[in-house]
Amino acid sequence: MRKQCLALTAALLISMSGASAAGEADVVDVRATASANGTWSFDVTVLHGDEGWDHYANRWDVLAPDGTILGTRTLHHPHETEQPFTRSLRGVPVPEGVVSVTIRANDSVHGTGGREFSVSLPK
After folding, report:
1. Average pLDDT over all residues of the chain
2. DSSP secondary-structure letter at 26?
3. What is the pTM of this model?
């Protein structure tokens, strides 16, 4: 009986941990490119253990040094079999004088909080 209880407890703990097993979404690489019209393009690589529609990386943001969101790339579906994955955002206006930005990712369970990535904006 004790062995059955322990097995049942272990199975319950494993199934309950599934929602948080993926952890937070991490930004692992960023490429920033200036456009001729004065806006910026960002190619951002995100790593997250997407587990389907209930827990996946669902967006990333471009932040000015003061925390202002300059642009957001919504991710419309899980990337369970494509990790890490890279997506782009074009036409991001960056205010005059801003020489670096931070990219942060968001997932549908934890929100923001994973590894962020700061990038200098070449002139």
Report:
1. 85
2. E
3. 0.80
Give the whole-angstrom CA distance, residue 11 versus residue 34.
52
Question: For residue 56, what are its two tokens?
Answer: 């996946």
pLDDT band at 65 (very low <50, low <70, confident <90, very high): very high
Domains and CATH numbers, the chain: 22-120 (2.60.40.730)
Q: What is the pLDDT of residue 9?
A: 41
In the chain, what percentage of residues exceed pLDDT 70?
83
